Amino acid sequence: GMLTALSNRIGDVAFLLAIAWMLNYGSWNYIFYLEIMQNEFEMLLIGSLVMLAAMTKSAQIPFSSWLPAAMAAPTPVSALVHSSTLVTAGVYLLIRFNIILSTSWLGQLLLLLSGLTMFMAGLGANFEFDLKKIIALSTLSQLGLMMSILSMGFFKLAMFHLLTHALFKALLFMCAGAIIHN
């Protein structure tokens, strides 16, 4: 629990800093002044803070250790963490800020880190015996896939994958809970 809380606090601080920096422009509607400030340092700073927040929320490398560790919680709690609330917040945040990813080098960095997350989670799931940790690592691999789709500029496909992943991961948790209970 402490690893989850501390990892997510880094993202919370980055998100609050991004909000405070956006207030320098008079509003949080960054879309209105994104076109005129695409290549400015301020938009790169806001984009990097938002990307750091999304990476901690969605457990991308180097913040990927908290998601399998959060599986020590009971199955209903871990199902909420996985399918509906916490890990989807980072992906949705980057879906909203997708223009920043496509106009700078942040998208290329995100592609590298999400590809590493996919590979690491898939490889780690092959050597795991606990069913809940296998589900956690499959979630981590799917989050890496969503982030890599986002970094390539297909934000509508990432949103579709986010919704279908939440549905099927909730069903998978109900099945895993029945297996563990029996």
From TrEMBL:
E.C. numbers: 7.1.1.2
Pfam family, one: Proton_antipo_M
Reactions performed catalytically: a ubiquinone + NADH + 5 H(+)(in) = a ubiquinol + NAD(+) + 4 H(+)(out)
Intracellular or extracellular location(s): Membrane
GO cellular component, one term: membrane
Record's keyword annotation contains Transmembrane: yes
Main enzyme class: translocase
Bilayer disposition of the protein: Multi-pass membrane protein
Keywords: Membrane, Mitochondrion, Transmembrane, Transmembrane helix
Entry coiled-coil feature ranges: none
Molecular-function annotations in GO: NADH dehydrogenase (ubiquinone) activity; NADH dehydrogenase activity
An individual GO BP term: electron transport coupled proton transport
Domain NADH:quinone oxidoreductase/Mrp antiporter transmembrane positions: 1-182
Superkingdom: Eukaryota
Transmembrane segments: 13-32, 44-67, 79-97, 109-127, 133-155
InterPro entries according to UniProt: ND/Mrp_TM (IPR001750), NU5C-like (IPR003945)
Chief localization: membrane
Protein task: Core subunit of the mitochondrial membrane respiratory chain NADH dehydrogenase (Complex I) that is believed to belong to the minimal assembly required for catalysis. Complex I functions in the transfer of electrons from NADH to the respiratory chain. The immediate electron acceptor for the enzyme is believed to be ubiquinone.
PANTHER family noted in UniProt: NADH-UBIQUINONE OXIDOREDUCTASE CHAIN 5 (PTHR42829:SF2)
Name of the protein described by the UniProt record: NADH:ubiquinone reductase (H(+)-translocating)
Organism: Drosophila mauritiana
Top-level taxonomy: Eukaryota, Metazoa, Ecdysozoa, Arthropoda, Hexapoda
